[in-house]
Amino acid sequence: MKYRMLVLDIDGTSATSDKKILEETRQAVIWIQEKGVGVILASGRPPQGVFPVAEALEFQRFGGCILAFNGARGIEYKTRRCLFEKLLPSHIPAQLQKEAVKNGVGIFAYQEHALAAGTKADSYMELESQISGLPVKYCPDFSAGLGAVNECVLTGASDALETLEPVISRRYLHEIQIFHSEPYFLEVTPKNVDKAYGLKHLLNRLGVGREEIVCCGDSFNDISMIQFAGVGVAMKNGCEELKMVADYVTEDDNDHNGIVEVIRKYFPV
């Protein structure tokens, strides 16, 4: 089978533990694009947090696409044109803010130039601010200050979020999708929206079949796209739940050019 497209999660997959793209990985991804293979970056990050990675991988030369907000928005990198998006129901952010305050966890939503926080900034928001390059802006009147959003993120210690997750899942069963991208992040997207949902829409626009793609990931929010892909790859450093459904698990982790291993295996010369 000749695969036409490589889909890469960023954090924990194509990026190292300190959020860098290793030069060997960068060159390998550029090489397959030169050979005509398409590349999509599929991330829980907002578009602004993905753009620097896309630039490093030279999407401006090759026309790659970005899948942001865990599948809720698809973007053509060269033009920054939105190809599709799905928004949270307008009343959900305010409801989630109440849940966050009641349970002693944080909440924020991505905006174009800031992380809009519905609670005082915690260490997890500050970390995301450093990664995304977006400052934290405290918005006590959370829903009124937001407008339409693709995603909200609850932040806190892993045990607190694990306790809260089934409660919120049941309460808003027909309106939202919930999953972890990190132990300290509980991400909330519109119902039935995940990375597989976003990929399906992007592939339809690009004229590529799901059996023609190789997807790589490391975390819970990658499970749907790993199952969706022609070949689903879990990184060595990935969670066990992902490895159980993957077609292949890398021998090298994200800190040792695991993506280069994938490219050599599935995109040979």
Describe the structure.
The strands form two sheets. The protein has an eight-stranded mixed sheet, sandwiched between helices. It has helices at residues 23-34, 47-56, 59-62, 92-103, 123-132, 142-146, 158-171, 195-206, 223-228, 240-245, 258-266; strands at residues 5-8, 38-42, 65-68, 73-76, 81-85, 106-110, 115-117, 136-138, 152-155, 176-182, 185-190, 213-217, 231-234, 248-249. α1 runs parallel beside α11. The longest helix is centred in the middle third of the chain and has 14 residues, at 158-171. It has eleven helices and 14 strands.
List keywords for this structure.
six-stranded mixed β-sheet, alpha/beta, eight-stranded mixed β-sheet, 11 helices, 269 residues
Distance between the termini: 14 Å
DSSP strand tally = 14
Helix content: 25-40%
Shape: globular
The helix/strand series, from N terminus to C terminus, equals EHEHHEEEHEEHEHEHEEHEHEHEH
Sheet with the most strands?
8 strands, mixed
Radius of gyration: 18 Å
Strand order of the largest sheet: 5-4-3-2-1-12-13-14
Specify the structural class.
alpha/beta
Low-pLDDT residue intervals, each spanning 5 or more residues:
none
Count of discrete alpha- or pi-helical segments spanning 4 or more residues: 11
Q: Mean pLDDT across all residues, rounded?
A: 95
How much beta, percentage-wise?
15-25%
Helix-strand layout with pairing:
Layout: E1 5-8, H1 23-34, E2 38-42, H2 47-56, H3 59-62, E3 65-68, E4 73-76, E5 81-85, H4 92-103, E6 106-110, E7 115-117, H5 123-132, E8 136-138, H6 142-146, E9 152-155, H7 158-171, E10 176-182, E11 185-190, H8 195-206, E12 213-217, H9 223-228, E13 231-234, H10 240-245, E14 248-249, H11 258-266
Parallel strand pairs: 1-2, 1-12, 2-3, 7-8, 12-13, 13-14
Antiparallel strand pairs: 3-4, 4-5, 6-7, 6-9, 9-11, 10-11
